[in-house]
Design brief:
About 75% of the residues lie in helices and about 0% in strands. The protein has helices at about 1-5, 10-30, 35-45, 50-55, 60-80, 90-105, 105-115, 120-140, 145-150, 155-175, 180-190. Helix 8 (about 120-140) crosses helix 10 (about 155-175).
Length: about 200
């Protein structure tokens, strides 16, 4: 993927970044439905013709941006991934730390797009990615999983963990990231490895 990116004309990458930044800015000011190609092009300091060289319409751009977001996060996570089963706990922490560091470095983008009710595709795409990662983790641990030994159904665990992750990340962003990515990763690790039995009394 990195090699493919290197072959793309820098001018194309720059134009797409301008459009991406312009879209995020406009989304802070208005609902998605009010964002037009004219407004987007004007904010990005390009012309309409240039926009249509890259995307069919606004929806096409949004969908491609969501795909790129997932690809970028996947790359970040894959760079941390190890097949060493013995180091699974440390790996879980490292994966989360790398993921949250990436979110932090692109905070404006994620804060706007993950909290926008008018553009759910970003949150939905990230949720699907997290579900896939959790499924992979559950399957790799198999019958040795503490969760499975406690009698918790896999699908309920996946719904719970992915929703909790998304919700906490969104809250973290909304509150202007009062904790470092490393601290947040450690908190997620502690929460995930707490005793299964919870006292609701």
């Amino acid at each position: 993927m990195d090699n493919k990116k290197k072959r793309i004309d820098p001018r194309i990458l720059r134009t797409r970044q301008l459009l991406k930044d312009a879209f995020v800015e406009l989304l802070q000011e208005m609902d998605m439905e009010k964002i037009t190609v004219n407004r987007l092009a004007e904010r990005a300091t390009i012309n309409r013709v240039t926009f249509y060289l890259h995307y069919k319409d606004i929806q096409d751009m949004v969908e491609k941006m969501a795909d790129e977001m997932v690809q970028e996060i996947s790359v970040v996570m894959s760079q941390t991934y190890s097949t060493d089963v013995e180091a699974s706990s440390d790996q879980d922490w490292s994966l989360m730390a790398s993921f949250l560091e990436h979110i932090s470095e692109n905070a404006k983008f994620y804060k706007v797009l993950l909290t926008s009710k008018s553009v759910p595709v970003f949150r939905d795409s990230l949720l699907k990615l997290l579900k896939d990662k959790i499924v992979s983790r559950v399957e790799s641990k198999g019958s040795q999983s503490v969760i499975r030994k406690a009698g918790i159904q896999d699908d309920i665990l996946i719904w719970y963990d992915s929703s909790a992750l998304i919700g906490t990340i969104v809250a973290w962003l909304k509150n202007d990231m009062p904790y470092t990515p490393s601290f947040m990763a450690k908190q997620f690790y502690l929460l995930h490895n707490r005793k299964v039995n919870v006292d609701f009394g």
